[in-house]
Amino acid sequence: MITQSLYERYLKLSQDPASGMAPPGFSTDKISFVLELGTDGRPLRILDIRDNRGKRPLSISMDVPEHGARSSGVKPYFLSDKAEYIFGLIEKNGVLFTSLKKFEASRVLHRSLLDGCVSPDGLAVLNFFERWNPEEPEGDEFFQLSLNKALSGTDNNFIFRLQGSDPFVHQTAEMISIWTHSRREDKEGAVYGTCLISGEANRPIARTHEIKIKGVADAQSVGANLVSFNFPALLSYGKEQSYNAPVSEEAAAGYAKALNHLLASRENRLRGVGDMTIVFWADRQLGQGKEWAAQEEMFGSFFDNEPEEQLEEDSQGTEQLKDIMLRVRSGMEVSEDMLPAPQALFTVLGLSPNVARLAVRYFWQGTFDSLFAKLSQHSTDMAMSRPGDKSPVLPSLYRVMRETVHANMDSGKMKKATAAMAGAWFRSVLQGSAYPYSVFAAIIGRIRVDGRISPYGESAGSAWVRASVIKAYLQRYARINNNDVLKGALTMELNENSETQTVAYRLGRLFAVLERAQIEASGGYGKLNTTIKDRYFSSASTTPLAVFPNLIRLAQAHISNPKAKFGKFRDRDIGEVLSGVPKFPTHLNLEEQGLFILGYYHQAQHTGSKSNVTGTNSETDAPIPNNKDKKGEDEQ
Fold it and tell me: Mean of the pLDDT values across residues 267-284?
């Protein structure tokens, strides 16, 4: 199904002149130099056609007669090749060597294909191979200097042009005809069969899939194979290599070109999802507008690390598209009629390197509205009020993974440490399944270690992301297990009127009230070096019975302190929260610890917001975090 979908995309792209997809029999490769010839094949000059606008010259991309795989051995290409095949010369460490075997192979190829051609362009190339001698290179001094310059670089692919002619030789009608015809000829030793991708019968079957897949993160620079049989253990019924899974040469080249095209496109590729490289594409229907482009843009921006900035800068994004994405990220409803081509197919493919091959880590295909429903569900589950009354947004995958490791861990180590979790999180988002337990457990563990769960101060941003993940995990846990008991806790902010709050959630709220009472008794924020949160949060969230009786006795002293102007209100809050706690549990499991943390976050955020907004009641004068403490929410 994967290769079929890619091949279908290739066929559609090859019919669209604006797609940049090379037609059948041709491939897009990097070209650096042009060898200009006289009609008698005499080499006249070498033109450097690289892009020199940057710090270093860059080869340009051009459609040329197809370049298959050349991992080992000698294999020349037609009318476009490296200098060692065109001139039979190669430079190593400043010393010039001849490569007679490669030049002779290239000469034989061009003799066989150009024999009988009548155009002056083709005859010029044929004459060049007849007269050129690598051991006695011809040409004037200027030509030799240009040749030495080309040989000194590694990106030295050449094409040909006849002096005075406008198109390059490989672009002329006769050369295209010769090349296309040669590919249709029966090949010696070819195996014919029915192609598994196209379904066509009596097609030449590819012994190996020659075009390498390039662009997968951390894969070999020369590329890797998506389909490859290279072990004796894979022999089946005497069929070797790719004859085990017969795919025609056209289809093998087609799906590889489509995948390379996706990997080279920034609009169709995601990186940073663990060790996976994600490509995605919408089903293109020619003549039906560009709904497919809007779908791809929406999916890419959903997982972008800086979605708001991108939406502002993207000139192609329509106001409708921006509105839809902002609604999704805010957890608002998006109806099907707002989506472009909701019933069109959409595909997501996740790849990771495996030495010389690629491993398919994830594949999803379905209608766009079903995919969008999953993304909307994810936004709703993750929705959490942000500190500072900021508009709700969706934390990116990177920020979620950032909260699972030590805050000072560098990004390279973090990528390795979170690779499996990032992949599992991505799959759960697209499938609408339970979020990975490993992410939930890792964040609970980090909170117990570093205590970064306060909605104020420099760690407010971390606290918001952590609370969002905990709420989202428990939301899906409750939905999948039909657990209605958790509903009172799984809200964007504190639900004061709920009568269904669990004991663990109430204990988290209680801890926030006790901490507040201690801070008020000391004269406000910044007066204490450590609070009960620094010393008891971890044990209170795991073994409440061992901690809370002592904390409540300590709170009575705080409430009765003359500095605590709001002691009676804290006493009232403690009584209200404890009314739903018949007894302190001896132990809280991991899900209950998540509820405890949510209760703490909601209560702390609610009390601070109330102090900021009310302005008239008795809590108006309650000490609140200063401006310095309120910074840093987006500094992660």
Answer: 87
